[in-house]
């Protein structure tokens, strides 16, 4: 595991954007696995600006998302699809055939999970970006999720719905379920980059780096992966030394 500790969130965003920029430049047909949430916002802004300024080709790129809420219209301003459309799909001029995200409006959710997992297997993810929840969740894989889980429907924990309420204005508006890539699906990526910022992520990072592998801390599943980079700020790294 390779760990970079940055002074603050801005520096974290620059470092993470640089890493993704280099990988995309080296392999324009790269398959990226991406996350939503607050942490990647800074790096996405830097990445899309730099790619545009430098005229990096994007027509061969494919991006896959970790998760999507169930029961929210794809075009809702709160869907992860809309988040991604604003952050990267549109600014990078990606065509529909270049981006993939679970369909939270599917009539048959089990079938949708199967379809998404098969697609991950068919294309393969080269580089997966992950944020981490304060309880150690990755994707929407909450504590207790089996490490061999594939793409599945989850009932969101109250604590996660509380945190995500900032995007919805009110907790009661946060959907109760989501489709998420499972832990095993995430581990299939060739390379994984975890980004974390702020004191509230410090315990999860500590468990990841120094704790034992346990399903109570989903992020510890990554200990089994051979190519993981962590980019975190000083606040989230406070228990690491
Ligand atoms: C987002 C996702 C989540 C977030 C995590 C951290 O697609 O799957 O696991 O990465 O909840 O969220 P932030 O970055 O908002 O702290």
TrEMBL record:
Function: Catalyzes the reversible isomerization-deamination of glucosamine 6-phosphate (GlcN6P) to form fructose 6-phosphate (Fru6P) and ammonium ion.
NCBIfam families: nagB (TIGR00502)
PROSITE patterns named in the record: GLC_GALNAC_ISOMERASE
Known EC number: 3.5.99.6
Keywords for this protein: Carbohydrate metabolism, Hydrolase
A Gene Ontology cellular-component term: cytoplasm
Family of the protein in this entry: Belongs to the glucosamine/galactosamine-6-phosphate isomerase family. NagB subfamily.
Gene: nagB
Source lineage: Bacteria, Bacillati, Bacillota, Bacilli, Bacillales
Active site (catalytic residues): 67, 135, 137, 142
Glucosamine/galactosamine-6-phosphate isomerase domain location: 14-228
Keyword set includes Hydrolase: yes
Annotated InterPro entries: Glc/Gal-6P_isomerase, Glucosamine6P_isomerase, Glucosamine6P_isomerase_CS, NagB/RpiA_transferase-like
Pathway: Amino-sugar metabolism; N-acetylneuraminate degradation; D-fructose 6-phosphate from N-acetylneuraminate: step 5/5
EC category: hydrolase
Listed GO MF terms: glucosamine-6-phosphate deaminase activity; identical protein binding
PANTHER family listed in its UniProt record: GLUCOSAMINE-6-PHOSPHATE ISOMERASE (PTHR11280:SF5)
CDD domains (UniProt xref): GlcN6P_deaminase
The reaction(s) this protein catalyses: alpha-D-glucosamine 6-phosphate + H2O = beta-D-fructose 6-phosphate + NH4(+)
GO biological process: carbohydrate metabolic process; glucosamine catabolic process; N-acetylglucosamine catabolic process; N-acetylneuraminate catabolic process
The name this protein goes by in its record: Glucosamine-6-phosphate deaminase
């Amino acid at each position: 595991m390779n760990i970079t500790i940055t002074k603050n969130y801005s520096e974290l965003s620059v470092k993470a954007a640089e890493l993704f920029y280099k990988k995309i430049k080296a392999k324009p047909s790269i398959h990226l696995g991406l996350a939503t949430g607050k942490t990647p916002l800074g790096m996405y802004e830097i990445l899309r600006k730099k790619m545009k300024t430098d005229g990096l080709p994007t027509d061969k790129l494919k991006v896959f998302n970790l998760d999507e809420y169930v029961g929210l219209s794809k075009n809702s301003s709160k869907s992860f699809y809309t988040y991604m459309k604003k952050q990267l799909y549109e600014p990078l001029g990606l065509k529909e055939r270049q981006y993939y995200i679970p369909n939270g409006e599917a009539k048959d959710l089990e079938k949708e999970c199967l379809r998404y997992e098969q697609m991950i297997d068919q294309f393969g993810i080269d580089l997966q970006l992950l944020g981490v929840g304060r309880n150690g969740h990755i994707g929407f894989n909450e504590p207790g999720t089996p490490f061999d889980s594939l793409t599945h429907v989850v009932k969101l924990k109250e604590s996660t719905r509380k945190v995500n309420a900032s995007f919805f204005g009110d907790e009661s508006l946060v959907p109760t379920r989501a489709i998420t890539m499972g832990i095993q699906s995430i581990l299939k990526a060739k390379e994984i980059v975890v980004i974390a910022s702020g004191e509230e992520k410090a315990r999860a990072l500590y468990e990841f780096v120094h704790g034992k592998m346990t399903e109570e801390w989903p992020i510890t599943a990554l200990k089994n992966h051979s190519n993981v980079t962590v980019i975190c700020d000083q606040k989230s790294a406070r228990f690491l030394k």
